[in-house]
Design a protein that fits this description.
The complex is a heterodimer of chains A (455) and B (400). In chain A, 32% of the residues lie in helices and 24% in strands. With 455 residues, chain A is of the alpha/beta class. Chain B is of the alpha+beta class. Chain B is built from nine helices and 18 strands. In chain B, the strands form five sheets. Chain B has a six-stranded mixed sheet. A four-stranded antiparallel sheet of chain B has the order 1-8-6-3, with no helix packed on it. Chain B has a four-stranded antiparallel sheet with strand order 5-4-2-7, with no helix packed on it. The radius of gyration of chain B is 29 Å and the shape is flat. Classes of the chains: A alpha/beta (455), B alpha+beta (400).
């Protein structure tokens, strides 16, 4: 029987990073993966969808090429190639993880892990002994049995939506969270008629109200139909299409995507053998991700929201350091950026305006439009806004919200600013380069003071 | 011909005055009797009246200036008169040495008491806690701002961020060692009143052989009588204070022991013909002692209303010399400040002062009599203080 200081279950962005950190700290580490290294993020989530969205953006750019004097007489979408490239990207990165495991002398165990007791795992029939275990099994798309259920052919979850053989002409997306709107932009950008049905009365519910409203307008302008407060009933696959009752009316779509959330993968892990009882498909932990069994940790999606790859990775590092006897700082959950790669992009960190007000903070808000930024105009990306929310009394940056081109890149400066506890003047005293979209960071902070320079 | 206006001598002890305020400006027409300026003297703020009609040609003494009695402060002219540009009024002030016949009362600064050098403002940072290596305190911008808003000294805060960096959270948890800011000393010009207090009390402490007598008087009956009288007199707007009773008791005691109602006069003793009680009043400018004359013969109600009036006038700085000069005995009461007992400095040329504290929970009131031994010996002082105690403990005697 092989014995390890640490066995990580699941090689997604939480698990593989935890394994690397544990190995760096001199722990004899193994990682168990039943599928491809990299998990959902790398194989069926973040990364392949970005590759898909790039194709879609390229198609839009070609459509607007004439504005720049680049006239493309005739373009054609090779949908097979679009999907293939996305797979190639995922494959390349998955291989990269394999290399990282090797480099860090981490034993990769192919198979399915199950706790036999608090010292031994069964990995597809092989017994593996561990001093510490890290559960990083991730999550899967949520379905509601008999109501919102995927068949994998006509009704998809995100995974199937990434690898269709042909481009549907019409598509119903159920759920207007990050995953829903990203697929909407991808398919709409390739010419598919997209309808989003969202039960809540707004889209991207995690985002600031004002940003969400601007996004809704932009998506609709892009030809996407958005039904908020929608009632979806009787979703079922027919012969070559999907039938559904939308707000009481019978509708047909070529395909449908369920994007109504995720569920932690807590099943078939043998948790009962170690007396870990998950709650609503997620495992409870302390600040260092120890479960009720102190040498068994749980990180990432299986340990609950926010279900984000960057959160899982950070949690993995903290868990590994804790196992190694280091004294890591607990993670700050008030400064986790959320990025949505729809067109236009949306990114944010910290409190929304509504949350700041609800928290009783006296705030000052800076709004700076892309329209006033030279680089944005030159790029042909004049739509969008950088919105900053500062505490009126202390100058603390409470939240930052961006909608527009490269919003997901721009947000990092605000994340770093919040992490270092920057105050408003830090953002405009720092000399930011010209011409960049980043200039809007300083201008937005100035706008909060009522004195933007270029607006 | 120009008319020179001089710093007037507004009280017998006044040698110089500070121009507080001009009420007329250059070019104003003036009638004899008009108040043209206010002058702060050693005792009070007083008005300077014009003695002639004319036009205020020029102001020489600027507000805030200390000027000797007899120095020119302004020039008046007749309407239409032309005054030479180089016209300079001649000072009638005596050279300073001669100007002060009561040398003892205003001694020149003693050599020992050399003016103190004024320290430059210094900000003392507490020695950094182990937080910082190399002197710099590592703190986030927000932590720095919060610290400055709360007046917290960052070097006393333990940082828990990377490499001991102080974060906003650390400040929230910090017990709150306040940063110590030392400010520079400032030299403040002496007001005439402050100068008078200093010279008079220094002379008293240095030349008058003080001794001190202490008793405790039970003031339960005074309190009861006071409550009863106040209830009866409320409709007349009278509200007697314990101090009014003490004034009256002291005045009656002095009348009973006229030998104690006296003053030292170098080669003689002044045996006062009247019992004039000086009552110490704290004013924004300093201590002053207005006088209730013939207090032994006045009723409690009279004493009470006079003391009130005089105290109010004193606080406004408007006492006239005749309201505070003379007096045969002083009373200083710090009971309202919660002081249990204290000893006061005799107010020369008087020979005694009574220091009154606050009655304790058993109605016992501490009385300390400071006595000039040249005038009053121990036995006489004891009899005087005993009599005061007697009146306070049997207050009905004060009413007959």
């Amino acid at each position: 029987m092989q014995n390890f200081d640490v066995v990580v279950i699941g090689a997604g962005p939480g698990g593989y990073v935890a394994a690397i950190r544990a190995a760096q700290l001199g722990l004899n580490t193994a990682i168990v993966e039943k599928d491809a290294l990299g998990g959902v993020c790398l194989n069926w989530g973040c990364i392949p969808t970005k590759a898909l969205l790039k194709a879609s953006e390229l198609n839009r750019a070609i459509a607007h090429g004439a504005d720049f004097g680049i006239v493309v007489e005739k373009s054609r979408i090779d949908f097979t190639r679009v999907i293939k490239r996305s797979r190639e990207v995922a494959e390349q990165l998955s291989k990269g993880i394999g290399f990282l495991m090797k480099k860090n002398k981490i034993t990769v165990l192919k198979g399915t892990a199950k706790f036999m007791n608090d010292k031994t795992l069964d990995v597809s029939g092989e017994q593996v002994g561990f001093k510490n275990a890290i559960i990083a099994t991730g999550a899967r798309a949520k379905q509601i049995k008999g109501v919102l259920e995927a068949d994998g052919q006509l009704i998809w979850t995100a995974k199937e939506a990434m690898v269709p053989t042909e481009l549907p002409k019409s598509l119903l997306i159920i759920g207007a969270g990050a995953i829903g709107v990203e697929f909407a932009s991808f398919y709409a950008g390739l010419g598919c008629k997209v309808t989003i049905a969202e039960a809540q009365n707004r889209i991207v519910p995690a985002e600031d109200d004002e940003i969400a409203a601007q996004l809704k307008t932009a998506l609709e302008k892009d030809g996407i139909e958005i039904l908020t407060g929608a009632k979806v009933e009787g979703l079922k696959p027919a012969k070559d299409h999907v039938e559904v009752k939308l707000n009481g009316a019978n509708k047909k779509f070529d395909r449908a995507i369920l994007a109504i959330g995720v569920l932690g993968n807590v099943e078939n892990l043998g948790l009962e053998a170690v007396k870990i009882v998950p709650e609503k498909n997620s495992i409870n932990t302390n600040d260092f991700y120890q479960t009720n069994i102190p040498h068994i940790y749980a990180i990432g999606d299986v340990a609950g929201s926010p279900w984000l790859a960057h959160v899982a990775s950070h949690e993995g590092v903290i868990a590994a350091e804790h196992i190694a006897g280091k004294h890591p700082h607990p993670m700050r959950y008030d400064n986790i950026p959320g990025c949505t790669y729809c067109t236009p992009q949306v990114a944010s960190t910290g409190l929304t305006e509504q949350a700041a007000i609800a928290a009783g903070r006296k705030i000052k808000i800076g709004r700076y439009p892309y329209m006033a930024n030279g680089k944005a105009i030159a790029l042909g990306e004049p739509g969008g806004m950088v919105k900053t929310i500062f505490d009126a009394q202390t100058g603390e940056l409470l939240g930052a919200h961006i909608i527009g081109a490269e919003a997901t890149e721009l947000i990092s400066t605000f994340v770093l600013g919040r992490h270092l506890e920057a105050v408003e003047e830090d953002f405009f005293h720092a000399c930011l380069p010209h011409p960049t979209l980043s200039e809007m960071i300083g201008e937005s902070a100035l706008a909060a003071e009522g004195r933007p320079l270029n607006a | 011909m120009p008319i020179d206006v001089y710093m007037p001598q507004l009280s017998p002890t006044m040698t110089e005055g500070r121009l507080a305020k001009w009420l007329k400006k250059e070019g104003d027409a003036i009638k004899a009797g008009d108040v043209i300026a206010e002058v702060e003297t050693d005792k009070a703020t007083m008005e300077v009246e014009a003695s002639d009609d004319g036009i205020l040609h020029s102001i020489i003494g600027q507000p805030g200036a200390d000027m000797m009695v007899g120095e020119p402060i302004a020039v008046l002219k007749k309407s239409g008169e032309n005054i030479a540009a180089d016209y300079k009024p001649v000072s009638k002030a005596k050279p300073k040495d001669e100007a002060a016949p009561q040398a003892a009362a205003t001694p020149a600064p003693v050599a020992v008491a050399a003016p103190i050098a004024v320290a430059q403002p210094v900000i003392v940072q507490q020695v950094a806690a182990p937080v910082a290596s190399g002197g710099r305190v590592k703190a986030s911008p927000l932590a720095r701002r919060l610290a400055s808003q709360k007046g917290l000294d960052l070097s006393s805060v333990q940082g828990t961020g990377p490499q001991g960096r102080i974060t906003a959270k650390d400040l929230a948890n910090a017990g709150g060692t306040r940063s110590v800011v030392r400010r520079g000393d400032a030299l403040e010009k002496l007001s005439p009143m402050r100068k008078a207090i200093a010279s008079k009390l220094t002379a008293s402490k240095q030349t008058v052989p003080h001794f001190y007598l202490k008793v405790r008087a039970n003031v339960a009956r005074v309190s009861a009588m006071r409550a009863e009288l106040n209830e009866g007199l409320a409709s007349k707007g009278v509200k007697l204070t314990i101090n009014d009773f003490i004034v009256k008791a002291s005045a009656l005691a002095l009348a009973d022991y006229p030998a104690a109602n006296a003053a030292w006069n170098i080669d003689s003793m002044v045996m006062f013909g009247n019992v004039d009680m000086a009552v110490a009043v704290a004013t924004p400018g300093g201590l002053i002692t207005p006088i209730v004359r013939n207090a032994d013969q006045k009723s409690l109600v009279q004493i009470s209303s006079e003391v009130k009036q005089l105290a109010a006038t004193a606080r406004e700085g408007k006492l006239k010399p005749e309201q505070y000069e003379g007096g045969s005995f002083s009373i200083s009461n710090l009971g309202m400040y919660g002081i249990e007992e204290f000893a006061a400095i005799i107010n020369p040329p008087q020979a005694a002062i009574l220091a009154v504290g606050k009655a304790d929970e058993n109605d016992m009131l501490a009385l300390t009599l400071s006595v000039d031994h040249r005038v009053i010996d121990g036995a006489l002082g004891a009899e005087l203080l005993g009599a005061i105690k007697e009146y306070l403990e049997k207050p009905s005697l004060m009413l007959v």
